[in-house]
């Protein structure tokens, strides 16, 4: 795909619009999987990339990237996704080992955690995304005869609609502790949909539950339009992230959770680069500068 490729923002599947971003993350996870200093093993990731015509010329190994780590898209940005995946894997596993029995992946995309993480027995993983994305995922995983390591429940619904009803119909039990994840999601949603999401998570969680999400704190995202990451993503694979991000005012979701009694902590990705001694470092005109990973817990009495 080239930089002149049209942006199909309302496409339901992975062929364009926001669905294509799920493939971007899958390609990054494929590259991370095959690195010598890997942080994450996702053996399914490259199969998604290879199954989608929209990304037939994307790399799935760093050796296929001429500039390697120096490449802003398949080097630095891919490493960002690898680090994010690892940090959020650790968060989810900690939460289920300390009591959460249900996992809800909001905007799950091509996340294969239900298949690749070592879940304690009796856990359910709900995957919410739009129907077209989940149908593509189902097709690829079925072809691979992949077996989930928890009870896996796809919930095809748009997060701008009343998704809580769909989750209840799918079997989610609000009386049982749960852990929730919104990874690479909230900035695609209109502000009111994010507010509804946070209120709904609060309403559907017991004490002992947890939520992690990714936020972008920039007041004006367009300031970074010519950053290396946004430019490479737009011009080389035709994904204009700034076009896909919602431009309206963002709610203060960490503040809203704190006001509801949750304990919250907010980190930069670079905090975890330091912790894992691998990952992106800050750079000038950095599209990652405003990215924050928020970890929230609803305290037990
Ligand atoms: C960047 S991808 C991240 C996917 C996954 N969380 C991960 O990190 O691999 C964004 C995902 O959010 C989903 N998404 C965006 N807007 C959505 C909406 N309104 N309803 C449901 N899913 C949505 C997209 O379909 C896509 O799969």
UniProtKB/TrEMBL annotation:
The keyword Chaperone does not apply. Its EC number is 2.1.1.-. It is an enzyme of class 2 (transferase). GO terms for molecular function: methyltransferase activity. GO terms for biological process: methylation. SUPFAM superfamilies: S-adenosyl-L-methionine-dependent methyltransferases. It comes from the Bacteria. Transmembrane segments: none annotated. It holds the Pfam family LCM. Keywords: Methyltransferase, S-adenosyl-L-methionine, Transferase. Belongs to the UPF0677 family. Exhibits S-adenosyl-L-methionine-dependent methyltransferase activity. This is S-adenosyl-L-methionine-dependent methyltransferase. It comes from Streptomyces daghestanicus.
């Amino acid at each position: 795909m080239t930089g002149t490729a049209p942006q199909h923002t309302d496409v339901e599947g992975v062929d364009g619009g926001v669905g294509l971003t799920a493939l971007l993350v899958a390609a990054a996870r494929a590259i991370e999987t095959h690195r010598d200093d890997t942080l994450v093993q996702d053996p399914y990731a490259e199969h998604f990339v290879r199954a989608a015509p929209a990304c037939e010329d994307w790399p799935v190994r760093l050796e296929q990237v001429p500039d390697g780590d120096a490449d802003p898209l398949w080097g630095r940005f891919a490493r960002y996704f690898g680090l994010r995946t690892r940090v959020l894997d650790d968060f989810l596993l900690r939460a289920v080992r300390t009591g959460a029995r249900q996992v809800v992946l909001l905007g799950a995309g091509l996340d294969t955690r239900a298949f690749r993480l070592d879940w304690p027995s009796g856990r359910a993983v709900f995957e919410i995304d739009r129907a077209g994305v989940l149908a593509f995922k189902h097709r690829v995983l079925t072809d691979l005869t992949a077996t989930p390591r928890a009870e896996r429940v796809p919930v095809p619904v748009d997060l701008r609609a009343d998704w809580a009803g769909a989750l209840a119909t799918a079997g989610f039990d609000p009386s049982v502790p749960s852990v929730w994840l919104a990874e690479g999601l909230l900035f695609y949603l209109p502000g009111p949909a994010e507010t509804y999401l946070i209120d709904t998570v609060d309403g559907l969680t017991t004490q002992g539950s947890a939520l992690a999400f990714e936020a972008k704190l920039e007041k004006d995202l367009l300031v970074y339009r010519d950053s290396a990451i946004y430019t490479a993503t737009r011009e080389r694979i035709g994904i204009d992230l700034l076009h896909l991000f919602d431009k309206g005012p963002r709610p203060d979701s960490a503040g809203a959770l704190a006001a509801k009694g949750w304990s919250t902590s907010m980190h930069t990705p670079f905090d975890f680069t330091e912790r894992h001694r691998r990952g992106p470092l800050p750079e000038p005109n950095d599209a990652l500068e405003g990215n924050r990973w928020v970890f929230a817990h609803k305290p037990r009495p």
